[in-house]
Design brief:
The chain has 312 residues and is mainly alpha-helical. The protein is built from 16 helices and no strands. The chain has two domains: 153 residues, no CATH class; 157 residues, no CATH class.
Length: 312
């Protein structure tokens, strides 16, 4: 396979997963923002949405203040934001077109159809109050692209590069949303374990489709350390860091086996997976959850760079 083809497949998947993640962030933030003011107090959920998406500085270069309207427009539709949902899906389709012959017909039709639907949409019909219509559509598109690839692609190098992009992006997103909740979302005037804290943790779990999973696994009220354990170390949760890295480690191994060579990317993926497997949540909190997540995001970025250097 040409490195150019692998690169397009890798980033196609990353942009699709990023669009899904941004849709979930907008949905969660919208849900938090409509809680009664007397109950929530003075919160900064729209700022936290930008921080979680990693584009707060880019936003402040264009807008004066984060509000429901400006953040929604910036994260969902803005052409000035290269990571908006619209731009992510447009870039994903551009990558898909470049590797049309490496995709199955069902996967291509799903991606191409999504862009055609997007071009017909009038963003003015999606106000802050009904942005859920757009976020549900974006999540559905991501699910259909992911599912069509899983169900129809040969388990060859094209498939493994595609999966690798999905899981690296998903791991980064899960780490960021957990880190931002822990450090930004809860105001200093609100108590940990209070009503606002509980509502925010519930919203975070919903954003990664893990609220029901938490109830099944933990079987008690929402507790930050149990939520962190679920999202970081539980391999049974598809969006946890451990589950993502179990898949990430398998992908470079499969690619390496197909080409008869292993390198830095394989070693680095296994190193991160081993560190997660040997971690306990008490140790994570004792050393500092923010520091743990910051180091994880840096390691994940280094793995992405190693993949680019080794293959792309």
């Amino acid at each position: 396979m040409l490195s150019r083809t692998a690169d397009n497949l890798f980033w196609l998947s990353r942009y699709v997963e990023r669009a899904d993640y941004l849709a979930r962030i907008l949905e969660t933030t919208s849900r938090l923002s409509v809680l009664p003011a007397a109950y929530t107090g003075d919160t900064n959920e729209w700022t936290s949405a930008l921080a979680t998406a990693g584009c707060l500085n880019a936003f402040l270069a264009i807008y004066d203040k984060p509000t429901a309207e400006t953040v929604t427009e910036f994260l969902a539709f803005s052409d000035q934001n290269p990571s908006s949902i619209r731009r992510c899906l447009e870039t994903a389709r551009f990558n898909a077109r470049a590797v049309r012959t490496a995709l199955t017909q069902e996967m291509w039709e799903t991606i191409n159809g999504a862009l055609l639907d997007l071009q017909k949409m009038d963003e003015r019909q999606f106000t802050t109050g009904n942005i859920s219509r757009f976020t549900e559509w974006a999540k559905d598109v991501s699910l259909r692209i992911y599912g069509s690839g899983y169900r129809t692609m040969l388990r060859n190098d094209a498939y493994w590069f595609s999966r690798l992009g999905f899981f690296i992006e998903r791991a980064d997103n899960t780490a960021r949303i957990l880190d931002v909740k822990y450090h930004i979302l809860l105001p200093e005037s609100s108590s940990v374990g209070g009503g606002l804290d509980y509502s925010q943790w519930a919203a975070i779990l919903r954003s990664v489709n893990a609220l029901t999973a938490y109830r099944w696994v933990c079987r008690e009220s929402l507790r930050p350390w149990l939520i962190a354990d679920l999202l970081i170390l539980n391999e049974e949760l598809p969006r946890s860091l451990a589950a993502c890295y179990k898949n990430i480690a398998d992908c470079p191994d499969s690619i390496g086996s197909a080409y008869g060579t292993h390198g830095k990317a394989q070693r680095q993926a296994r190193t991160v997976l081993t560190a997660l497997e040997n971690s306990l949540i008490d140790q994570v909190f004792h050393a500092g959850l923010h520091e743990f997540l910051t180091n994880f995001i840096a390691d994940n970025n280094r793995l992405g760079a190693a993949i680019v250097e080794q293959y792309l």
